[in-house]
């Protein structure tokens, strides 16, 4: 049985949005961990929740701290829209 394509749009209900965010964040981190193991690669993911809470995989290493400092110093570069 084939599923239809899911339309990607903002979830209006804040509770549903938070639940979806948590589930998708867990899935993203699981994929990052699997990629790291399967390909012997260094993988990092930085996610800010809608409330501004920071979560990273792996935990904050010196390299990730440096990257976060750059993101904090140049927020306009990382938040611009790409056409």
UniProtKB/TrEMBL annotation:
InterPro entries xref list: MADS-box/MEF2_TF (IPR050142), MEF2-like_N (IPR033896), TF_MADSbox (IPR002100), TF_MADSbox_sf (IPR036879)
Keyword Nucleus included in the entry's annotation: yes
Subcellular locations according to the entry: Nucleus
Cited PROSITE patterns: MADS_BOX_2
Example GO molecular function: protein dimerization activity
GO biological process: positive regulation of transcription by RNA polymerase II
GO cellular component: nucleus
Chief place of localization: nucleus
Record keywords: DNA-binding, Nucleus, Transcription, Transcription regulation
Signal peptide as annotated in the record: none
Residue span(s) of domain MADS-box: 1-61
SMART domains, alphabetized: MADS
Record-given protein name: MADS-box domain-containing protein
Organism: Stephania japonica
Lineage: Eukaryota, Viridiplantae, Streptophyta, Embryophyta, Tracheophyta
